[in-house]
Amino acid sequence: MPTRLEELQLIHCSMLPGESMEFLQDDEFWGQVLSQDMGTDFDQPSIQKQATMATFTLKIDGKPVWLQVTMFMTTDDDLISVKGDNLSRGEQERWLEIIKQQRDELEDTEFLLYNLLSLHLVPLLHEAPVTTPRLLTSHHLMSSKKRRSLQQWSSSLKVAGFAKVGYPGVIYAQGKEEDIEEFVSNVKSMQWLALKVRFVERVPEGMLNNTGGESLSGWQEFSRVGEVVEEMRRIRREDCVLEMGIGSSTSG
């Protein structure tokens, strides 16, 4: 019991300016316990009876994603989930993959949860969501001028992605937020039939480098919807198109 509480104390003390740890249950109780010196009164039956499980959030000021942690005080078990504003299923799955990967690497480490949170997950929350994937669709994409422009803009703005030509037209692009904003603005400045921005997702750059899929680089063109689905599956983001009704899970 003292060791588990000690680990909770370490997590609490590791919070930096701009970071917050908030207990979702028994906030006053945990505040009192954590304010005591290590080893003081932790063996009291009254504390042991109540201190069986601690559930808390770890948040970064101004960031749209946070962690919710349930720490079981009488065992070495814990549960970590990811919460956020408009967090997609695909993004949740990527977070869970990262958590599993980092946990496996820390196996047999003393104070595993503390190290997992303080050395890996909380720093990842800090990463500015500079990578902003965008998915746009139109009735069609046939114009050679538009296709050349997309290629030129992707190169000059360092935007990676692809365009699916024909019917329907599909454009997927990701890059730094300010570059993507300019890219999308350029696309919108051209004449389109039924052009729609289907989603805007802000993803911490480090997450796209740890998805378990391959990386997206350069600019490509596809002619079939199946190729779009396959490319998105390759980078582990097929849910982005499937949820929009573009293609099917059997496309390929």
Features:
single chain, 252 residues, alpha+beta, 5-stranded mixed β-sheet, 10 helices, 40% helix, elongated
Task: Describe the protein's topology.
Elements: H1 2-13, E1 19-23, H2 27-35, H3 45-50, E2 53-60, E3 65-72, E4 78-84, H4 89-105, H5 112-126, E5 134-138, H6 144-156, E6 160-164, E7 169-174, H7 177-188, E8 196-200, H8 205-208, E9 219-222, H9 225-234, H10 239-242
Parallel strand pairs: 6-9
Antiparallel strand pairs: 1-2, 2-3, 3-4, 5-7, 5-8, 6-7
Helix pairs in contact: 1-5
What's a concise summary of this model?
40% of the residues lie in helices and 21% in strands.
Computed over alpha carbons, the radius of gyration is 23 Å
Helix count, DSSP H or I runs of 4 or more residues: 10
Main-sheet strand order equals: 8-5-7-6-9
Q: How does the helix and strand content classify structurally? A: alpha+beta
Low-confidence stretches: none
Largest beta-sheet details: 5 strands, mixed
Give the CA-CA distance, first to last residue: 53 Å
Secondary-structure element order, N to C: HEHHEEEHHEHEEHEHEHH
Overall average residue pLDDT? 84
Percent in helix: 40-55%
Q: Using DSSP, what is the number of strands?
A: 9
Strand content: 15-25%
Shape designation: elongated
